Amino acid sequence: MADRGRARTRRSGRADGGGSGRGRRPESARRTTTNEVRARTRLRRSLAAKRASGAAKVLGMSTTRRAAVVAIVVCALAFTIAVPLRTYLSQKSEVNEQQQMQSELQRSVAQLEGRKAELSDPAQIEAEARKRFGFVKPGETPYIVQLPDDKAPEQGQPQGQQPVPAGSWYEKLWDQVAGG
Predict the structure, then answer these.
(1) Do 56 and 66 meet the contact criterion of CB atoms below 8 Å apart?
(2) What is the spatial distance between Cα 130 and Cα 120, in angstroms, rounded to a whole number?
(3) pLDDT tens digits for 41-82?
(4) pTM given for the model
(5) If residue 114 lies in a helix (H) or strand (E), which one and from where to where?
(6) What's the burial of 130, exposed, middle or buried (CB within 10 Å: 0-12/13-18/19+)?
């Protein structure tokens, strides 16, 4: 602290430290040249580089070790980000699937509402009953015409199901093995 006070007195030009001293300084001493500014910035940069290398020396780490630590930190960050990112992407795909299902269901609801509106007419209900269930009015004679190419569906089975062959599974297996 005392050194700073002395430096101020030297700058002022008086030994007693009084007065402003600005009028007594020569003009060239007030101005700094660009060379001096460049020199100061170089000095600051070199001091900063020495401090950084000094810090690495204090930690006892070489350039290779520092690079390895940086690589480990980057890998740790990547693994930290990977799991939430994967979860986000999977949830996003699930949301898209649910939105598609919702749009399909909305189309289905619209079709069913249209069908409901059609069936509100009694004439439509009568036509549907005649077609699907074979209803006839009293006094009418129903006729079913079968062409030779048409096969009559069996009464006991709904269409689309195949008849189940008789016999247990082991008998069928034995017949296949025996070649029968």
Answers:
(1) yes
(2) 16
(3) 877 877 777 666 665 565 677 888 888 999 999 999 999 999
(4) 0.37
(5) helix 63-118
(6) middle
